[in-house]
Design goal:
Shape: rod-shaped
Low-confidence stretches: none
Number of strands: 0
Helix content: over 70%
Distance between the termini: 71 Å
Strand content: under 5%
Largest sheet: none
Number of domains: 1
Order of helices and strands: HH
């Protein structure tokens, strides 16, 4: 059997979460929310890394061009 714990939240937060969770168990609902949040953060990091790589590529391209002329 899995170990269980409690999380203290305000009544307002619990009511909001209960509306969103529907018929899911708290465990599966909160796990899904956490995994979605992690994926969202990963996507933000991927986008930022891509922007940085594009900026670096552009800097290299401009440097080469400047050396040629």
């Amino acid at each position: 059997m899995k170990r269980a714990t409690t999380i203290t939240v305000s009544v307002e937060t619990k009511l909001l979460l209960e509306r969103v969770k529907g018929d899911e168990t708290w465990d599966s609902f909160l796990r899904k929310v956490a995994l979605e949040r992690l994926e969202s953060k990963r996507e933000e990091v991927r986008k930022r890394l891509n922007e940085l790589l594009e900026m670096e590529y552009e800097e290299v391209r401009v440097s080469r061009w400047a050396r040629e002329y």
